[in-house]
Amino acid sequence: MATNPTFQLFSASNDKSSSQGLGFFDSPEPPRPPPPPPVEVFSSEVSSSVAFSVDKVNIGQVTLLKGRVNTKEVFGLPNSDLVPGVYEGGLKLWEGSIDLVKALEKETQTGNVSFPGKRVLELGCGHGLPGIYACLKGADAVHFQDFNAEVLRCLTIPNLNANLSEKPPSVSVGDKEVRFFAGEWSEVHQLLPLVNDGETGTKGGYDIILMAETIYSISAQKSLYELIKTCLANPNGAVYMAAKKYYFGVGGGTRQFLSMVEKDGVLASTLVSEVTDGSSNVREVWKLSYK
Fold this sequence. Notes:
This protein has six helices and ten strands. It has 291 residues and is an alpha/beta fold.
C-alpha cells in the first residue's frame, strides 16, 4: 500500500498557496493499479464484522442518517480521503452529497424534478444519501454504484437500511427495486440493468442519475461521462451533479468537466445552485440534460 499515495482533497481548500506551482491542471496523477472486476453486491452481503453507527444529519427540511465506519477497520488504511485505484473515498460523507440532497429537495418543491415512478442511479454513492432521498420520495428503482464493494457492504447497505427503518409511515418501500453495483466507471455498465443498447435498441436507461464529488480526477472524467451517456434515458433523462469548482492538487472540477461536456455537444448544462459558505472553495450543483 505504501506505493499508493493518499490525497487529502479538501485539506488545501482554504490555503491560498495551494493554487501556486502545481495547480489544478498540472498536477500529475500517480499510476493506478488494475481495477477490481465489476460485481453486483446483494443486500444480504451486508457486513456484520465492521462496527457501524449512525448520526442524524439535518439537510434543510430533510433529516437523514449518516453511517460511520472506520477506514482502517475496513481497508487497513489510515484515515485518508482516498488512495487512487484502491480506495476512492467512499467511507467519508463529502460536502457535495449534502449539497445535492438540498438541491433535490428544492427541485422537488418547485416541480422541476419528480421521483415517483422514476428509475434512479447514484454513481460514486458512498453513504448513498441522494439515492436514499430518491427512494424515500417515491422512485420505483434506485441503483447504487461505488468503486469499492467494501463500501457498499460496510456502509451503503446498512445506511440505507437505517434510513428506511426511520421512514414515515406514509412511505412504502416494499415494492421498490434497490440494487448495488461495485466497479470502475469504464466497466460497471456491463452489470447495470438499465443501459442504452446500441444493437437491440434500448433498455430504457435511467431517468435520473445522481452523483456528488465524482469529478475530482481528470483521468477518470472521460469514462464517467461515457458511462452517463450509456445509462441516461433519452430524451428526457437528467443528471444532477454536485462538485467543487476546482479540486486543488488533484486536477478536476466543474469547469474542466463541463468544458468536456460542451465540446461533446450531446448534453446541455444548467446551474442549479452555488454554495459559497467559506468551508471550502466554491461548490456547485449542475443539471445535465439532452439538447
